[in-house]
C-alpha cells in the first residue's frame, strides 16, 4: 500500500495527510542531493554553537522552502534556524519541529543519517506529548519513513518508482539487548556508570553509530536503550529537546517504549527555549525504569 493510500485508509485529516506527503517528497530531494557536497563546511554555526555543513543548510532550505511555498504549516523550528519561522497566511496551524539532517558528519563515511520531524497542532514551544504526529526519514541502504500517525507507528520503504510503500503497520518495540551511549566514558556521572555496567553485566551489546536517528531506529526494531546522558560540565546533555528528543520520543512511546531524562518522561517537559538540550534515555520501558530507579536512589 502506498503512503497516500494508507493515510486515506486511516481517515487522516486531509490537511495533515497533504503535509506528510509534501514532506515525503522533500525527503527524496534530500536523498538525491548528497553527491558532491558530502564534506563541505558552510562557514557558519547553528544556535547550538556547532559548525554547519553545506548539506545541513541545503536540506533545511529544501524543507523550509517547501513549507513556505505550500503554506501547509504555520510555524517551523529547525536545528539550522536561529529562531522560529512564522509562515504568513498559512492554510493550517500546524507547528513543525525539524532536524533536517541528523548525523550529517557521517555522510562522508557513508553511514546512515536522517531527517527528524515533529508536528504540533499549533505553536512548537510545547511539551512533546502535545504532538499530533512525528516521523523520520532514514537515508541508508534503504530510504525509509517511520511515522507515528492514526494511533500507531508504521514503517514505509521507498520503492523503485519513488513511492513509499507500507512495510509494517502498528510497530511495537520488542525486548532486546542492545545499548548505545554517547559522551566520553571518562565524563560519565555515577548513575550512568552504574547503569551501563548493569546493562553489560546483563549481556547488552554496544551499538553506537553517531547518528541518533539511525541508532534509535535500530533500538525500535531490536529492543534495548539509546542514551546520551548528562555528563561532567554538561548536565543538560548534548541532544536537542524540540527537534530530536520529542519527535523520536513520541514515536518510541507510541510503539510501546518510553523516553526519559533520567528523572521524568521527556514528553512532559515544558520547553523554555527552542535551543533547550536534554539528557536522553529512549527505548524499552524496562530499561527506562532501570535508569530512573538508579537516579532516584542516587538522589
Ligand atoms: P557524539 C549527531 O551530531 C548527533 O546530534 C546525534 O545524531 C548523535 O547521536 C550525536 O550527535 C553524536 O554525538 O558526541 O558521539 O559525536
UniProtKB/TrEMBL annotation:
Residues that, per the record, bind substrate: 102-105, 208, 238
Molecular-function GO terms, alphabetical: fructose 1,6-bisphosphate 1-phosphatase activity; magnesium ion binding
One Pfam family matching this protein: FBPase
Location(s), subcellular: Cytoplasm
Main localisation: cytoplasm
GO biological processes: fructose 1,6-bisphosphate metabolic process; fructose 6-phosphate metabolic process; fructose metabolic process; gluconeogenesis; sucrose biosynthetic process
Binding positions for Mg(2+) 1 per the UniProt entry: 79, 99, 101
Organism superkingdom: Archaea
This protein's GO CC annotations: cytosol
Listed cofactors: Mg(2+)
Residues annotated for Mg(2+) 2 binding in this entry: 99, 102, 244
SUPFAM superfamilies: Carbohydrate phosphatase
Entry keyword set: Carbohydrate metabolism, Cytoplasm, Hydrolase, Magnesium, Metal-binding
CDD domains named in the record: FBPase
Cofactor note: Binds 2 magnesium ions per subunit.
UniProt pathway: Carbohydrate biosynthesis
Enzyme Commission numbers on file: 3.1.3.11
Domain Fructose-1-6-bisphosphatase class 1 C-terminal: 175-295
Fructose-1-6-bisphosphatase class I N-terminal domain mapped to chain residues: 19-167
The reaction(s) this protein catalyses: beta-D-fructose 1,6-bisphosphate + H2O = beta-D-fructose 6-phosphate + phosphate
Similarity annotation: Belongs to the FBPase class 1 family.
Subunit structure: Homotetramer.
Protein name: Fructose-1,6-bisphosphatase class 1
Taxonomic source organism: Candidatus Argoarchaeum ethanivorans
